[in-house]
Amino acid sequence: MIEINNITKSYKETMALSGINLHVNEGELFGLIGPDGAGKSTLIRILMTLLLPDSGEAKLDNLDVVENYKKIRKMVGYMPGRFSLYQDLSVEENLNFFATVFGTTVQENYDLIRDIFYQIEPFKSRRAGKLSGGMKQKLALSCALIHKPKILVLDEPTTGVDAVSRKEFWEMLKNLQQKGITILVSTPYMDEADLCDRVALIQNGQILDVDSPKQITEKFPRKIIQVGARNMYQLINDLRAYDKAEAVYAFGQYAHFTGLNDEVETNELDNYLQNLGHEKILVEEIPAGIEDVFMNLMEQ
Amino acid sequence: MERETIISARNLVKNFGHFTANDNLSFEVRKGEIFGFLGANGAGKTTAIRILCGLSSPTSGEVEVAGFDIYRETEKIKKNIGYMSQKFSLYEDLTILENIKLYAGIYGISRKQRKEKESELLKKLELENVKNKLIGDLPLGWKQKLAFSVAIFHDPKIVFLDEPTGGVDPVTRRKFWDLIYEAAHNGITVFVTTHYMDEAEYCDRVSIMNAGRIEALDTPAKLKEKYNATNMDEVFLKIAR
């Protein structure tokens, strides 16, 4: 449904995208996972026909993003990273406006947005600028869907959004996928990768890996040792000081330890920490998560 | 061992017209603690932080920050705190060095002291070779490190960090927390908000706000026990949903 072949884009000396290749299948929920400055928005803007690539080509539903930009704009729904609805129009006016621009009516496609829109319907006469963050997001999604797009593209819809609203938003995306819409979504939150069918890990304008989240973590060859102790600050400093430590990072209530050549065993770390007088020590080998993989790939 | 209290709020209320943004907040933060201030969007965190920083007065309640009264001694409070947010921290069209000088000037640090601390800081952050570069040209991770260092340049008693790590890559995010740990280790109290629930685990204690109230306040370990959860994400969802 989305084909990207060797796309490059630079801004002055900064290489924003260097040779991106990517294919998104029909009906897929596909995630672009990467930090700020990775090139996610640049890639999305090229796909949305808002920016021209320096070289390479991209097609959405077999339509070229440069030649067929008008047709593409009619069949994609786009939710940009910054709230871009009309702040001084009401909720209802915004929705009607976008429906009219796309030559349709709210009634005609109401089915698609019902589950999302009913939550903000009580506030339909309120100006968009006066809505809370969560409500703005629901309105923006409704407006992006009102012309029943084949492909929905969302640029960091959950950035700066609290954990509860993030969860709800992903449930909405899953429901839309059920209705046959192909979804491309970008996010800097690594934990959201697990909610996608497939993801591309992107950093510094390059794709580090593309696969299902399960495959990405399962094929990761390194040995990750999870370590816990009462005093985290001391624990991390001591683990880093260990002569066979390659990488040590905090992961929530634990630290993740990678040994040089994966040769460090759990019992040896355990002994090391006991000798240093740590309390409540826990040392166990665990399967890697997306964030472990991402961090490892970006440091290579 | 009970540590000295550095922030205390008793029955803090803030109303905007008929809307109660902070509904009777009572809490204490101890010296040198990393205090996580969590809550859903719109729960009232920003309102409370603005009050604690002396930028806004409460409708009622007693609040002391760094030993100063929130109604009468806001200027003294401002001198004793540092503040950093992702949205506003450094001037993009000034160089690294100019930003440091500006902040040092605002906080009345003497030229001699500034020069000493400035070279120490540039060395620590490995920015000596780029000190005359514009902030706008720096990668986000560097900006954040510098913004944090500038926020504590005048050795404040407390530093307020409002979502300091949004959007950065996972390695940079963790390196940023190394700086937070170090500051706390050196006796600076850290008051931090975040949407990353793994970061809530790094805090000594965490409060969770919902609809203007503090619904829970304890160490991450005790909160997990109390809410029968395996991580802070679950705790948060149970409280805020």
Spell the H/E element sequence of chain A: EEEHEEHEHHHEHEEEHEHEEHEH
Q: What gyration radius of chain A follows from the Cα positions, in whole Å?
A: 23 Å
From the structure provided, what is the oligomeric state, counting identical versus distinct chains?
heterodimer
| Estimated helix fraction of chain A | 25-40%
Derived structural class of chain B: alpha/beta
> Strand portion of chain A, in percent?
25-35%
The most extensive interface, with participating residues per chain, is:
A-B, 34 and 36 residues
Poorly predicted runs of 5 or more residues of chain A:
none
CATH superfamily annotation of the largest domain in chain A: P-loop containing nucleotide triphosphate hydrolases
**Average pLDDT of chain A:** 92
CA-based shape of chain B? globular
Largest sheet of chain A: 6 strands, mixed
Overall residue-averaged pLDDT value of chain B: 91
Short précis:
The complex is a heterodimer of chains A (300) and B (241). Chain A has 300 residues and is α/β, with parallel strands linked by helices.
Structural notes for this entry:
The complex is a heterodimer of chains A (300) and B (241). Helix content of chain A is 33%, strand content 28%. Chain A has helices spanning 40-47, 69-75, 91-101, 110-117, 133-145, 163-178, 213-218, 232-241, 266-275, 290-298; strands spanning 2-11, 14-24, 29-33, 55-60, 63-64, 76-79, 151-155, 182-187, 198-203, 206-211, 224-228, 245-251, 254-259, 282-286. In chain A, strands 6-7-8-3-9-10 form a 6-stranded mixed β-sheet, with helices on both faces. In chain A, strands 2-1-4-5 form a 4-stranded antiparallel β-sheet, with helices on one face. In chain A, α3 runs parallel beside α5 and α4 packs antiparallel against α5. Chain B is α/β, with parallel strands linked by helices and 241 residues long. In chain B, a hairpin with a 2-residue loop joins β9 (205-210) and β10 (213-218). In chain B, α5 runs parallel beside α6 (170-185). Chain B is globular. The chains are: A alpha/beta (300), B alpha/beta (241). Chain A binds chain B through residues 34-38, 132-134, 159-167, 188-190, 203, 232-233, 236, 249-253, 291, 294-295, 298-299, and chain B through 39-43, 139-140, 163, 166-172, 174, 177-178, 181, 184-185, 195-198, 201-202, 220-221, 231-233, 236-237, 240-241.
